[in-house]
């Protein structure tokens, strides 16, 4: 599967034993107790939800079971939605594809993906079967895949945290999950606990900061510089963020600390 798996409103759906190349699950507007299952799949990045909080609380459970998947990426991607009871038993790493460059995405016998319940399947005999349709089908273009299981360096080779949250810069298709265009930008706050300073100040997991006191933020470096210049002499900050694909504005009336580097 080349594109992402988009699962919109529905009930009792099961997606199992898929390989989603260079993409992931896109859960959109799920209901409470939907009964949906997403397990034993190989995916390349964190889930890309949209408006999931419409019916489910910020830390509410998604579906019946989202677990035992294999992430071809770092642990931050695997653990990003643990608060939604996702992927407590999933793994990440190199799946050891047989020959992905030539389209063979079966995994070798030593693959750690097999530990999650994924199993190899026939990659050569599916799709259209009528000869005329087979003649029309193009030879697939195999995108180059990059296996990077180390911690992602989000900003100029350095990983930053702030207010107890991990900072990242969404790009490309990641921005579509926020409901903004590819030419937009900002700094996202992810992976922070309900009792963290970020939560106490009014932030929600996944908030995309786009403005502070009317100034647009393009990246983590600009946030770092803004806070460095304002530390100590400003105690009122108006934040404009993208939350659940909508603009949310709130004020923090206290001094804010600088960013911290993750060593």
Topology record:
Blueprint: E1 5-7, E2 14-16, E3 19-20, E4 25-27, E5 37-39, E6 42-43, E7 65-67, E8 70-71, H1 75-79, E9 91-92, E10 97-99, E11 104-107, H2 131-136, E12 160-162, E13 165-168, H3 173-176, E14 187-190, H4 197-200, E15 208-212, E16 215-216, H5 220-230, E17 237-243, E18 246-252, E19 260-261
Parallel strand pairs: 1-4, 2-5, 3-6, 5-7, 6-8, 8-9
Antiparallel strand pairs: 10-11, 12-13, 12-19, 13-14, 14-15, 15-16, 15-17, 17-18
Describe this structure in words.
The protein is an alpha/beta fold. It is 11% helix and 24% strand. It has 5 helices and 19 strands. Strands 12, 13, 14, 15, 16, 17, 18 and 19 form an 8-stranded antiparallel sheet that branches. A hairpin with a 2-residue loop joins β12 (160-162) and β13 (165-168).
Q: How would you summarize this macromolecular structure in one to three sentences?
A:
With 263 residues, this protein is an alpha/beta fold. The chain has five helices and 19 strands.
Strand element count = 19
Principal-axis shape equals elongated
Rounded to an integer in angstroms, the radius of gyration calculated over CA atoms is: 20 Å
Q: What oligomeric state best describes the polypeptide chains here?
A: single chain
Order of helices and strands, N to C? EEEEEEEEHEEEHEEHEHEEHEEE
Low-confidence stretches: 151-157
Q: Note the main sheet.
A: 8 strands, antiparallel
Global structural class: alpha/beta
* Distance separating the two termini: 36 Å
Helix fraction bin: 10-25%
Q: How big a fraction of the residues is strand?
A: 15-25%
Tally of helical segments: 5
Mean pLDDT: 86
